[in-house]
Amino acid sequence: MRERPHAREARRDELYPSPPPHRRALLRYVGLWLAAGAAVAALGLQLLRGAGDEVSLPPVRETELVSASTAARCELRRESAEGVLQPAASGRAGSASRPGIYEQTPPQPALIGAIRRGIIVIHYRPSLDEEQIEQLQRVQEAVPLATIVTPNENMPFAVAVTAWRRLLGCHSFRAASVDAIRFFRGRYIGSGPDR
Q1: Helix, strand, coil percentages for the chain (3-state, nearest 5)
Q2: Rounded distance, CA 20 to CA 189, Å?
Q3: How many C-beta neighbours within 10 Å does residue 137 have?
Q4: Are 114 and 74 in a shared domain?
């Protein structure tokens, strides 16, 4: 004999009773929050995927760097077998200095260790005025994980920038010096053998 539809529903209600009204409201509330969380997570994933699509800039061409250093009246030098650069851009390396702004000059082996890792080191004579030093610090802040700014009294330049076996030296600090420093960093950042 077939069961009547009312009897089936009554039997189902006995086996699976519906929750009281306050529990239904709580379940609905939790469900809405879960749905909202899923929507936010999906949006976050979409944004992160978009962040991975980086725009790669072309490397600085040698001609741009030469033009910028000429405009700043700076010298570009490359280490050769005849002589080493001052400040040093190679040599005995120690535990690498961390990128950042230094008040005291780190030991030379620590700076060489940083250069070997592809970090750019900006040296300045402590006799520069505060505004000029702040400009160099702002250059560091633009690429903080790959730039060191440090005083250096033992060099023939007012400002010098070193990369692995490369040097940009400026006998005086001019507004154009900052552009030359940026071009030098853009050209040689990450060029060390231990990067």
Answers
A1: 45, 15, 40
A2: 66
A3: 15
A4: yes
d(CA 12, CA 14): 5
Does 155 lie in the same domain as 182? Answer: yes
The two tokens of residue 89 are 């851009």
Q: How far apart are CA 143 and CA 60, in angstroms?
A: 15
Is there a single domain that holds both residue 144 and residue 94?
Answer: yes
Lowest mean pLDDT among 41-45, 96-100, 133-137, 181-185: 41-45
67, part of any domain: yes
pTM of structure: 0.69
In a domain, 183, yes or no: yes
| Residue in the block written with tokens 């010098």 | 160
Tokens in use for 186?
């853009």
Written as six digits, the tokens of 181 are 């420093």
